[in-house]
Specification:
Helix content: 40-55%
CATH topology: Glutaredoxin
Shape: globular
Largest sheet: 4 strands, mixed
Radius of gyration: 14 Å
CATH architecture: 3-Layer(aba) Sandwich
Number of domains: 1
Number of strands: 4
Strand content: 5-15%
Length: 147
């Protein structure tokens, strides 16, 4: 699904070295109700502003390619681009965000299980059908994120 209403400027065309100087970035589907609900929850928890939240719909093509992310990959699951430039996908991305936001690392490891992976994959495939999608792309604004 394409978001036609996202007009926020991103960090388009930057090199991997330039992007890695930023804080970790969670890339999500900005029109998916499940994804945007999860991001809203994470923003509420993220009091230290440890993570940047970006819908894939506003990423530039060069930026996506820098990390080897195709449009179909971005449409299919969340991704986190770590400060060192490494990329985690799906349930592993959720576990990595959890580690950044939670002092209880053992809790975060629950996301790195085969069962969690199967549940994530099943939900990801059916998320529009079960949770629906938005008419416009959700882009966190400064007052929500405090940035």
């Amino acid at each position: 699904m394409t978001c036609f209403k996202c007009n926020k400027a991103g960090t388009f065309g930057e090199s991997k070295e330039q992007l890695s100087a930023h804080k970790p970035r969670l890339i999500y589907d900005g029109v998916c109700n499940l994804c945007t609900g999860a991001v809203r929850l994470l923003i509420a928890i993220d009091r230290n502003h440890a993570v940047e939240y970006t819908p894939y719909q506003i990423l530039g093509t060069n930026e996506s390619r820098t990390y080897g992310l195709s449009t179909s990959e971005l449409e299919g699951r969340m991704h986190i681009v770590q400060s060192d430039g490494s990329v985690a996908r799906g349930v592993t991305a959720i576990a990595e965000v959890c580690k950044l936001l939670s002092p209880i690392i053992a809790l975060c490891e629950l996301f790195n299980t085969p069962l969690a992976q199967r549940l994530y994959d099943a939900l990801a495939r059916r998320r529009y059908r079960v949770f629906g999608c938005r008419d416009s792309c959700y882009v966190p604004v400064v007052r929500e994120t405090g940035r």
